[in-house]
Amino acid sequence: MKCPCNPEKFYKDCCKKVHQDIFKATTAQELMRSRYSAFVLGNIDYLSKSHHSSTRPSKRDDKETERWTRTVEWVKLDVINHTAGTASDAIGTVYFKAFFIENGSVQIIEENSRFCKENEHWVYLDTQG
After folding, report:
1. Is 16 helix (H, G, I), strand (E, B) or coil?
2. Within 10 A of 128 (CB to CB), how many other CB atoms are there?
């Protein structure tokens, strides 16, 4: 199976490793890519685990997210830019566009997400305005 975050790679060689061990995401961009793949695959447990504890959605929101991920068809991920977020950084941002089809119409999630380290691994913190 091709990896949802990058069709030039196999899932088993890319995001699957991070889904199985979050410490395998050594950069903010790797964590963001793994979260995109988790949305595509409906891996809500991983989405929760990879979300900062101070901004993590409730279990009720998780169920809503799971329902939503099953109603859309994910098309592609474009990473536009990133700042910091290397293995030696504590914080970083990733600007991306995620394309999906919902109700027959192409939609785009465009955001500049902020990531930080919590418990010594990368997590999604919030979206910068």
Report:
1. helix
2. 11
